[in-house]
Write a structure and sequence with these properties.
Layout: H1 4-10, H2 17-30, H3 34-64, H4 70-107, H5 116-128, E1 133-134, E2 137-138, H6 141-151, H7 159-171, H8 190-194, H9 199-208
Antiparallel strand pairs: 1-2
Length: 214
């Protein structure tokens, strides 16, 4: 590409040396080369095509909403959002219940119940009590079990009671310590004997009615 000086020279016009810088400055301020012009035109055409494509896409999108009530669209969006949130809550609840059941099973391994029915009833009461699971542990479970034992001792079996049964079976009746009262007369049921709070009395009653525990 020829510069302005070369073009003028070909036309027989000689630019003085002291005027060349001024000529170059004036030309650059007022004119652009054909290459620069073509480049700007190409960029402008590219921008035009991009905006045209966006406009056409927007127009097609708007056509898709023709005849649709905006209120109904918003309602559908809200319904979908509500269903998604409900599904997420249900999933989280099921995961929590599974983790709670696993933790409860592990924590009850050291607790002996008088029967499977008593154990199922205890598990049900624990779940209904609303105790919370945190870091794999059920908060307040120890205190809750202690309260259950106070209310219904017959649902649980402790080591002393098991030892009393073994001793009664092998060595005969266990004598209550001096000063301890024996259970009231009459035959007692297994449940009545297990519900006796005084350990010495309970052991004596077990030994006297060992046939109920064999």
């Amino acid at each position: 590409m020829q510069n302005i000086e070369a073009i003028l020279k070909e036309l027989g016009i000689e630019v003085p040396e002291d005027k060349k810088s001024d000529l170059t400055k004036k030309v650059s301020e007022n004119y652009v080369t054909k290459a620069e012009h073509d480049k700007k035109i190409s960029r402008a055409e590219s921008d035009r095509d991009a905006w045209k494509e966006k406009a056409e896409t927007a127009e097609e999108t708007l056509k898709g909403f023709e005849g649709i009530d905006p209120t109904q669209v918003q309602k559908q969006i809200d319904d979908y959002k509500e269903k998604a949130e409900a599904a997420e809550r249900d999933r989280d609840q099921k995961l929590y219940e599974r983790d709670f059941a696993d933790a409860l099973k592990a924590e009850l391994e050291g607790t002996k119940f008088s029967s499977e029915g008593a154990k199922r009833d205890a598990v049900s009461q624990i779940k209904e009590a609303g105790l919370k699971l945190k870091d794999g542990k059920i908060l307040g479970l120890t205190d809750f079990l202690a309260q259950m034992k106070e209310k219904d001792a017959s649902a649980f079996v402790d080591e002393e009671q098991e030892n009393a049964l073994k001793n009664a079976a092998h060595f005969g009746p266990v004598t209550a310590p001096r000063g301890q009262q024996t259970p009231p007369g009459g035959t007692k049921t297994r449940e009545e004997i297990l519900s006796i709070k005084d350990r010495a009395e309970r052991q004596k009653a077990i030994s006297e009615n060992i046939s109920l525990f064999q």
